[in-house]
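DM from R.C. (forwarded with permission)

"hey, sorry to bug you on a friday — could you get me a structure for this? deadline for the figure draft is monday and I only need the backbone to look sensible"
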Amino acid sequence: MSMLRNAAIGAALLGCVLPGAVMAADNVLTLVIGGEAYDGPPKFEVSFDGHLIGKGAVESAIDTGNDGRFADANDKAAYVQSFEFRIPDDVFASGAEVRVRLTNEAFGGEGSNRDRNLFLASVAVNGRAVTLSGLSTADVNGIAPSETLGEFLVLLDGNQQAVSKAPRGGWPEAGASIAPAKFVAERLPVSGLIDLKVPKVVDDGVQRDASTEPLSVALLDQNPESSCQIDDLHNVIGFNENSNDLTDRLKKRLDQIAAAIGRQECTAMITGYSSTQGDYATNALFSVERAQNVLRYLREQGVKFAEVNAVGVGETTQFGEELNANRRVVITIRP
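My reply, with the result:
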């Protein structure tokens, strides 16, 4: 995903939308969006805290009539753009919600390959980004099931909107220095897990008893001379019920992530999750083992980390009502 994002932002220097002159002190909202074109590019509008702040069109969108579908493209970066919009000072709020809507939905008919859609990769305000795991879909009835493609939230219908709530701690103000994201996991009671040895954790220099920390097994590599230009998040979805095994589909996904990281040595947090189906304690162990298996596989593919943690936070419903959506591992990569 980082290669895609870098390519998209680089290409967007020629085609980004600037609703107003953006100065250093302005509040800026940045979208990274791919598209499918049919009889013209997909157009969209973006709102911040309920206020319309801009409109745009993905001119680089793939022509579904001649070039096929976005999902089938080997190099999706060619069909992705970055857009910037100024947020007026009187509209900016650190806890505001961002919404994106497709405004010119079109479809060539049943059996036709012609379609016009949006693929939202990220929303950022003043440099702080929210990617797929923080995005959802809403319609007139409220939150609706989301359709995803890799690292993209798909907008097929003009009646639906992509929704990004403010990240933990809120959107930063313009000009504020953005501290590196802290990897904070949900805390789990450890009842029923007393046989699992959990190391003590040090956070901001304060050592705490492991029984008050997330169920985790931390695996660390240290290399102070390593360099990394990646700031990204990857979702690994598709674990089978009651299983930590890496299927061929999951390995293919991890191969893509390994290729994106390449030879860079970054800091990573690998967080495992489970669904709410089954025993609570067993689900907690599943989440740890899924994260560990992902880390082990990435290392086997030659990925090296400056520092890495494999953590399980147990069962969750934060990724939606579908059980399978919550059987996942989230890989956060930082310089």
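R.C.: lifesaver. The chain is about 15% helix and 35% strand.
me: no worries. The chain has two domains: 2-164, 201-334.
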